[in-house]
């Protein structure tokens, strides 16, 4: 609440997941809508889901994924998109954004039957399950576009820190099948940071009454 009321603070984000003794929903609800630069406030998420309404902020990682597709010249309208994972902070808003760009969207989750077959039909695959190397090369339709959001630390004694980051997509297999694929690390991660800065800039403009 102190940060909410401080006019010198233009954005407040909550780093999830929170320690178990804290109520995640209560904390997220406490962030003022005008400073919710992560876009997780229920009103921001609700407005994202309703046609004709605009959220004050769009969640950073999904926003970064769409920006990557647009900047790469990927046609979204009318294409089949599969989003693997349905979390509130990544999978769900990504599927909503793809629908806003008129893709035909299927969400694959833990209870989906024939996940591989469903994914094989996609022109655009967004992997956000948090399971390293879940998506193999034979899950990808030749020429498909692959956005890998997953970042899981895996033990690797050969690395300086003793681990390396691995995506949800087996990059070595998928890179020869996909037309475009994001690496892990260095793909979606920097875009998430960039979109957070963009949201914060928009918040500051709004609070300071800049056009």
TrEMBL record:
Signal peptide: none
Keyword Oxidoreductase recorded: yes
Domain Tetrahydrofolate dehydrogenase/cyclohydrolase catalytic: 2-38
Pfam family, one: THF_DHG_CYH
Cited InterPro entries: Aminoacid_DH-like_N_sf, NAD(P)-bd_dom_sf, THF_DH/CycHdrlase, THF_DH/CycHdrlase_cat_dom, THF_DH/CycHdrlase_CS, THF_DH/CycHdrlase_NAD-bd_dom
Keyword annotations from UniProtKB, A to Z: Hydrolase, Multifunctional enzyme, One-carbon metabolism, Oxidoreductase
Start and end residues of each Tetrahydrofolate dehydrogenase/cyclohydrolase NAD(P)-binding domain: 59-206
EC number: 3.5.4.9
Gene3D superfamilies: Leucine Dehydrogenase, chain A, domain 1, NAD(P)-binding Rossmann-like Domain
Protein name, per record: methenyltetrahydrofolate cyclohydrolase
Encoding gene (name): FOLD1_6
């Amino acid at each position: 609440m102190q940060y909410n009321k401080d006019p010198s603070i233009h954005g407040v984000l909550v780093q999830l997941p929170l320690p178990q003794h804290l109520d995640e929903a209560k904390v997220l609800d406490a962030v003022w809508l005008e400073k919710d630069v992560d876009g997780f406030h229920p009103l921001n998420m609700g407005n994202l889901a309703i046609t004709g309404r605009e959220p004050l902020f769009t969640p950073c990682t999904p926003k970064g994924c769409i920006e990557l597709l647009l900047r790469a010249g990927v046609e979204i309208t009318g294409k089949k998109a599969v989003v693997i994972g349905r979390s509130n902070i990544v999978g769900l808003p990504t599927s909503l954004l793809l629908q806003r760009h008129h893709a035909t969207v299927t969400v694959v989750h833990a209870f989906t039957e024939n996940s591989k077959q469903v994914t094989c039909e996609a022109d655009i695959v967004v992997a956000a399950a948090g399971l390293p190397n879940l998506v193999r090369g034979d899950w990808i339709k030749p020429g498909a576009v692959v956005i890998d959001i997953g970042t899981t630390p895996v033990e690797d004694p050969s690395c300086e820190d003793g681990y390396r980051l691995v995506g949800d997509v087996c990059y070595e297999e998928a890179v020869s099948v996909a037309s475009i694929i994001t690496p892990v690390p260095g793909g979606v991660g920097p875009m998430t940071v960039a979109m957070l800065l963009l949201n914060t800039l928009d918040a500051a403009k709004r609070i300071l009454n800049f056009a």
